Hints:
- 62% of the residues lie in helices and 0% in strands.
- By secondary structure, it is mainly α.
- It has a domain at 11-91.
- Helix 1 packs antiparallel against helix 2.
- The longest helix is centred in the first third of the chain and has 33 residues, at 11-43.
- It is elongated, with a radius of gyration of 20 Å.
Amino acid sequence: MESKEQTRYSDKELEEFRLIIENKLEEARKQLDFYLQQLSEQTNSEDGKVRGLDDGTSSMVNEDTHNLANRQRKLIQHLENALLRIQNKVYGICRVTGKLISKERLRIVPHTTLSIHAKQNR
């Protein structure tokens, strides 16, 4: 008997991944809100002037917070794209090899589009 290689995840498996991604998305959005709140507090002082212009440390913290916020925005976009792939039933397929990405990898990095093998060969 010939064993047929699985070419896509089942609807039940996709549902499991959808829940993982939605939880990560919720956390990522909360984290982004936190960073945006921090930025708002860092840049607004009582007299309406931007704080930290004469203080290099404040400017550095502000820049770091901006970078963290941008990373969260990218993560949110990647997670939203992963939800679209689930909707289109193409989630979990490596964009290089065309084979299924391991469930273990997807549980850890649910927005990935590369298998470990493809990632290591880049």
